[in-house]
Amino acid sequence: MIKISLIQVENVVAGYISSIDILNDLSLDVEKGKITIVLGPNGAGKSTLLKTIYGFLRPREGRVLLRGKDINGLNVEKLLNLGVAYVPQQSKSLFPQMTVHENLEMGCWVLKNDKKRIKLAINRAYEHHSFLWEARDLPAGLLSGGQQRILEVERSMLTDPEIILLDEPTETLAPKIAKNIYSVLVDLKKRGVTILIIDQNIRSAMAIADNVYILDLGKIKYHGSKEELEGEMESIIKTWITVEGGN
Amino acid sequence: MILIEAILSGIIVGAVYALIGVGLSMIYGVMKVVNFAHGDLLVFSSFTAWFLYRRMAMDPLVSLFIILPVSFLLGILLYYLVIKRLQNSNDSETASFLAFFGISLMLKHLTTSMFGATPRGIPFPYEQFFRISTRMGPFTLSTSRIIAFMVVCVVTVILVYYLQRTRVGKAIRAVIQHKEAAQILGIKTDLISAISLGIGLMSVSIAGVLVTLVFPSISSKLAVNYTTIAFVVIILGGLRQPLGALLGGVVYGITESVAMLLLPMGYAHALTFFIMISVVMWRPEGLLSGVKVWRKKKLTVNELVVTEGY
Predict the structure, then answer these.
(1) Does A76 touch chain B if contact means CB atoms closer than 8 Å?
(2) Is the Cβ pair A96, B307 closer than 8 Å?
């Protein structure tokens, strides 16, 4: 079967301060229509990778390609219009005092005044999760942690992205709720969305993954399909524990 | 009876204070910087209205058609030429704070140089239409103040509609609450911040013009007082809630008015600030945080249905 890459990260070097590189010559492929998971210990550069793909951090070297075209330097509006969406860590992208409906409206910002499309997109989100409809007039900050995460994911889907970048989607959530979030992500994949997830919840993330990358100190240490890496995961985790314990 | 009259007067003056607070709240909300030049901007627009009245016999409310576009433009320019550049510095908040402090001093000197240091006043400008005072049942109120109050009501309705219902208004609230989140959604936060600064300056300019109707005289020395009042109003209403400032302004106005009726001037001001501190201790996030608690209680009823599974 031919693999089609939707996003290619090629030899990227990036960091927040000029003298320190967080990503060191990092390369990665995100296969179209699949769930790709990036795992790694704290400080490996996982969140930095997503910020670099989404244009919040400009690579010092290397390129980020979307459907083979360089997207370095494109602003967020252009990336959203090209079909890339991003959900950061720990429900950090909601407006807590605005209602659920207003949060969804803000998710349609790049659709400008296309009222018909905005209405359709928001109604679709309500159809997917009825609790969003029930809570539409409540401040988003009053939703539970899991509900807020679902709201963020659904909001990122309003612009019909081809790929969604998710940073730690189940962090701080109870296992039962995390399981529900993963099932939502599997549903998204069934809807044809490509997903790139950064995660520390290794076992649950592996269960839904197609491809896995293991990141350490800004470099890809291992990569392969879920089946290829499944046998090696125990020893990889042991290495992290040793490294983090040693620190 | 006198007490009720003082409360009514407090509501009217408080409405003008509310407008001063709304402006400061919007500027603080999007830039996280306290505008130290707020009172100076107010006094400058008061003097501009006085100048246009004196030189061209222009009605203070008509002068808003000149003052408002200039204020909005000034806000946009100020953002792109000064604030945006400073926000890229290592300590952007201190840098922006110092910039506003500099603007405050500059405006102070500009006001004194252009209009003089003498307190000025605009005599009741609507004598051919209304009496100076209006009887409302058993109460007598200044007609100028009633007109000012009506203007504040109209401005409030427009502002509430703009912030609650329009696309850009909602984006302003989004940027106030979470700038980075707004960026993630493709909202041009620089443009929204500039518009917000423009609207903030428009609000304080309207308040400046209304001050000429509400108080008998204006003086450049009062700039600091207005800046202080704006601080109190936004602390009462909640730092990041422009609409909370409306409530904060009215509460401050009533407190000040009643306190001045019952106590000597110095004690009245002390009491006003004592009440402010009490409110802050009671509701640290502003008076409207109580509304949130009420809504939360309402949610718990729905939570059984809503939270299942998530």
Answers:
(1) yes
(2) no
Number of other CB atoms surrounding residue B168 within 10 Å:
14
A71 and A64 in contact (C-beta within 8 Å)?
Answer: yes
pLDDT at residue B301 tops 50: no
Q: Which phi and psi (to 5°) does residue B248 adopt? A: -55, -40
Distance CA A141, CA A121 (A): 22
Tell me whether strands A69-70 and A61-66 are parallel, antiparallel or unpaired. antiparallel
For position A193, what pLDDT does the model report?
A: 95
Percent of chain A with pLDDT over 90: 62
* Nearest residue in B to A150, CA atom: B310
Distance CA(B67)–CA(A1), nearest Å, equals 68
Residue B45 has pLDDT above 60, yes or no: yes
pLDDT at site B295: 52
What DSSP letter does each residue of B193-253 carry, written as one string? HHHHHHHHHHHHHHHHHHHHHHSS-B-GGGHHHHHHHHHHHHHHH-TT-HHHHHHHHHHHH
Q: How many domains does chain B have?
A: 1
Give the count of Cβ contacts less than 8 A between chain A and B.
97
* Chain A residues touching B310 at Cβ < 8 A: 131, 144, 146-147, 149-150, 177, 180
In one-letter notation, the amino acid at residue B11 is I
State CA B139 to chain mean position distance: 27
Domain that holds residue B63: 2-306
- d(CA B206, CA A159) in angstroms, rounded, equals 39
A197 strand-pairing partners:
A37, A166
Q: What is the pLDDT of residue B309?
A: 53
Given the DSSP bridges, would you call strands A163-167 and A84-87 parallel, antiparallel or unpaired?
parallel
pLDDT of residue B306 exceeding 70: no
CB contact under 8 A, A76 and B185: yes
* CATH number, position B155: 1.10.3470
From chain A, the residues in CB contact with B306 under 8 A are 131, 134-135, 143, 147
Of B165, B185, B294, which to mutate for an interface test with A (greatest number of A Cβ within 10 Å)? Answer: B185
Indicate the angle between helix axes B265-282 and B223-237, nearest 10 degrees.
30
pLDDT digits (tens, 9 = 90+) for B77-128: 999 999 888 877 878 878 888 889 999 999 999 999 999 889 999 988 887 7
How many helices and strands, by DSSP H and E, does chain B display?
A: 13, 2
Task: List per-block mean pLDDT (blocks of 10 residues) for chain A, which spans 247 residues.
Answer: 86 89 93 93 89 92 94 92 91 87 97 94 94 94 90 94 93 84 91 92 87 90 83 73 53
pTM: 0.88
- What's the N-to-C CA distance of chain A in angstroms? 43
CA–CA separation, B32 vs A73, rounded Å? 27
How much is the pLDDT for B235?
85
How far is residue B217 CA from its own chain's centroid?
Answer: 19
